[in-house]
Every structure is written in structure tokens, then in C-alpha cells.
Design a protein that fits this description.
22 helices, alpha/beta, 6-stranded mixed beta sheet, Helicase, Ruva Protein, domain 3, Rossmann fold, two-stranded parallel sheet, binds iron/sulfur cluster
Amino acid sequence: MEQLSLFDDRKVSAPLASRLRPENLEEYAGQKHLVGKGKILRRLIEEDQISSMIFWGPPGVGKTTLARIIAERTRAEFVEFSAVSSGIREIKEVMAQAEKNRKMGIRTVLFADEIHRFNKGQQDYLLPFVEDGTLILIGATTENPYFEVNGALISRSVVFELKALEKEDIKVLISRAVCDTERGMGAYGAEITEEAADFLADVSGGDARLALNAVELGVLTTEKGEDGKIHLTADVMSECIQRRAVRYDKAGDSHYDTISAFIKSMRGSDPDAAVYYLAKMIYAGEDERFIARRIMICASEDVGNADPMALTVAVSAAQAVERIGFPEAQIILAQAVAYVASAPKSNSAVKAIGLLAKDKLMTNPCTAKADTLLCNGCSTCENVCPYGAITYEDQEVNDHGIRETRRVAVVNNALCQGCGACTVACPSGAMDLQGFSNRQIIAEVDAICR
Ligand code: SF4
Ligand code: SF4
């Protein structure tokens, strides 16, 4: 357990990633879907309506930083806690302090890093304190919290999903790291080329810590050039991050043009061309895992159930490439590419799932309605409705000039799921569906899949 005054890890000896840790939301990079202007988490922070929450996301995307910014902003006492190094005794001490803080009107933010590694006893112990507001729990996890965190704790928290940083966000951080003379490496007089920054932003896979560590290593280990400056080139960065720099030929073919030609060759059933572009990517230094992912996508997206074995071959190739590496991995990739390119093609899965667009699924597609002139109140529809959506009421009906009161079926739109069962069962043809029915959607999907 470690009690910190916020941002006190800014010592010169601290790693660059810690020194550059943003202090406020204005400096914070990425997660615009949560902390962008007017977004949910920013509103909660600005209106000081913070409650317990769990940040779920890959490493290096700013989970700890966000927790510290929240604590700073809400003037709460921030206690950092790690499941790996702290036991129940330390938790009890924190709770006792949180209780004292509460009596003095001070809030306590408990930041539980790797909360998925807390055992059930530790998680259960936190529950009552979270519930009565003694502390605000902010958990961070790289694992899906719905599987890894105590359900009771989840139900008392808001889960926010943090995403890998965008390439442009990483480039902003790299530039800050190289130029900032106070918290960054600016005092060393280093320069980073555009190509090197692009490469680093690409290969870091959205992990800011990884990119900043590489910059720090590059600056500290690269000798100055004749002009007295440290030049961070793509080769230097490649060495620092231990990944190959990708370089396509001098004709100026871009990375994405080659990948596009590679995918189109597989999709167009041209194995010779597909293997040609594969070789080009390999010699340019493309990441073999990236290539394997493209083959798997093509095997499902373009071959699909026309030859289900294509996906099996592609997945096996990806696993084999992971275990074996280059140079032999190129043979495995070529085998998978030739198979997928030669296989028959079907995009029915793409079309079927594409039809089920979110707006169609999330808006109630249709509801049933009884024609009061045709309905004779026989109750058949009520008996078949699986959602209990049908009731009856007496309504005044004008049947060709004759006014009378009839018992007719009435559909509760909030309960009706548009399944159409009542329309099939109704003996008088009184019940009909209004809008686009689930059955129509299912029939369309069925037609595509068959
Ligand atoms: S369409 Fe289905 S859910 Fe709606 S009222 Fe008829 S039987 Fe019930
Ligand atoms: S089954 Fe048809 S006729 Fe009978 S109550 Fe329902 S809507 Fe009316």
C-alpha cells in the first residue's frame, strides 16, 4: 500500500512516462469518448458527481492517470493500492483512515490497480465501504470486469471502457517527450524524424508507456551527431522498441496500398498475386502477426462458409507463426494465403450481420394492433402471446353506421416484441403488425444465409 501526494513521482530519477503524466484533463491524451467536451466522465468530474467506477482497458492507456486527475480535481485523499503487494490488513488500515476522513468531510479515493487480482475476500471487504460512501473506489483492470470482478462490486460501480490511444495521440505524447525541457527529455537536445515518430506510434499499438520508454531509451543511449544533436531515426527507435521498422520500396508504394492489393488478390482468387504481395510485405519488414490477422479476416469475410476450412487454416497459421517466427513463418503464411486465395468465396455472413444494424435492433421494430371492426374478442391472441402484451377493453365501435360497444384486443406497445404470433393465430384476420417486424428481418437474414 502506498499513500501518495498526487503526482509526487515527478522526481528527475522517475521514468519519463511518470514524469510526463498529465495533471489535468486538458493535458490528458485519448479517451475522447469519455473525457472529451461534454462526454459522460468529464461531466461527472466537472460537476463533482464522482462515484465508484472501474476503468477497463489495455495497458498504457491512462487508467492510473485518470484516477489521479479525478482525485486531484475532487480534492480527495488518493490512496493507491495494488492487489499484488497488499493484503487484508492494509485494506483495513485504509478503511479506518477513510472513515476518519469522512468524519472530517474529506473524501477518500481508493485506486485499486489490477482489481481483478484482488481475491473474493478482499473484494467483499470493500463492499460496505463503497456502499455507504466511506470511499470512492476506482478500480483498474486489463481483464473483462464482468468476468473477473465480484458482481456485487460491479453493480455498485460504473464500468468505463478505455480504448488504445490513437496514433495521433501517441505522436503528440512523443513530441512532448522529446521537446519538453521540464518534464521531458528536452534538455538533451534531441530531434525525432517524422518517419520515426510514425513508426513508434504504429508499433506501440496504442500503449503510451511503451512509446515513451522507447523515446527515453533512444535519447539516453544515442550519441550526438556532428551538429551536436541526438537524432532519433526510425532505425534507432526500431532498436529501442525491439520491433522492425517497415519500409516499402523506393517507387513510393505505401504501406496501405500494398496491404490493400494483398487483400484484393486473396478476395479476387488470385493466389499468385496474393503470394507476391505477401513476399513484398515480408521483405519490407511488416509484422507477421499483422499479416496473419489480415489472412484470418479474409478467411471469414470473403471465404466464409463457402469453405469453412479456410478460417481453420488461417487461425492455425496465425498460431504457428506466433510460435515459430521468421524465417520459417513466411512458409506458413504463404500456405495460408494460397489456401484462402484459392478457396471459393461467399460474403453471406457479412451481409447477414450487416443487415442487423444497431438501429434496427435497438428500436422496437414493430408492434401488433387489432382492427376493432374485425376483432370479436375471442381471446386466441392473448393465449398465444409469449410476452403477455395483450389485454382487452370495451371500445365503442362504429360498424357501418351502427354504434356499439365491443370487447376488443388491445396491445401494450411497451411489452410487444413484434414476434407476430398473434397475427398468425387470430382467426378473423384482425391482428396485424405495424412497422418492420422481427419476422421480416429474420426472413431476410434466412434468405441470405441459405
Ligand atoms: S406480436 Fe407477439 S408480442 Fe406482440 S402482441 Fe402479438 S404475440 Fe404478443
Ligand atoms: S385473436 Fe383476433 S379476433 Fe380474437 S381477440 Fe385477438 S385480435 Fe381479436
